[in-house]
Here is the input.
Amino acid sequence: MNPYSSLASNKFWRLSIAERDYFSISQVWTPKFKIQKDAAIITAGSCFSQNMGKELQRRGMNWHNAEPAPDDLCAREALDHNYGVFSFRTGNIYTARLLLQWLQWAFDEVPQSRETWNNGERYFDPFRPNISPDGFESPQAMWASREDTLEAIRKAISSADLFVFTMGLTEAWLNTATDVVYPMCPGTVKGRFDERLHKAHNFAFAEILSDFQECIDLIGRHNPNLRLVFTVSPVPVTATFTTHHVLTASTYTKSVLRAVAGQLEASNENVEYFPSYELVASPPMNGVFYSPNKRTITPTGVRFVMDHFFNGISSADQTLQGQSEISTQSFLPTEDIICEEELLDYYK
Here is the structure.
């Protein structure tokens, strides 16, 4: 006898992976804390996580939309203005530093930036550049809209039971004068690029770990009972500003984020890691869940990931629907996924 003799089959590659079809792989994720069906769940992060809110609702879970659309907007207009995409109207939050920045602004721990962008007639929020297709009529209107979002963040964090955040990127653009971080490079989605002001930065493991830990600590000060699930988007980066090939740059990004997520889970009792990345991008999946562009995830891939999430949180007396029973119609069409980073393809 030795310590390996009594291990479960899911601890062995041959038994749990090599001798199985990928659709029959099971027990990939068992959260260390119980997630009740009526738990108030909030979501944010990169574009891959946008199906989470809708699927939580479809499965009868309690997804909390802290910033609902005004009644006079139809469903298409609401989506175009980023309502209902995440629990609050920040747009995609690709980096740890950007999440920390939003949380610090929301809880008045750091003064928010008053930077504005305009095209001569309309004003745009540098930190939510794609939030309103037509922009705002004045800086005051833009700031008022942002205040609504900051209030939504405060309410969501203070009242939620679970926060699911999808990590996306390590690369970002900073303002050298104010040190704020942007969601996108100025001059891509909106604004103008100024090489004197705007600096590229590829966050390292220690920086990202520190930023996320600061987020966890800040959240804990305002809601000690809130638990977090981190996951890593399996979507490769669209483009890199580093000196490396996009393949190695993307591998660096996902490897660092995965390592950070593992460290956060190990160091915090209220933090869990869910393996979205492994369920799509690992070798046993043979790339079958990627679209022909080898980047975006197919509806079948999204469904596969979501099945594992809900099977993981289901209790013994609550068996969630199997993969074969779930229609791809429950997921947002690819064209309805709002992903500013993909706009970088336009420039080459």
Remarks:
- The radius of gyration is 20 Å.
- Confidence is low (pLDDT under 50) at residues 315-331.
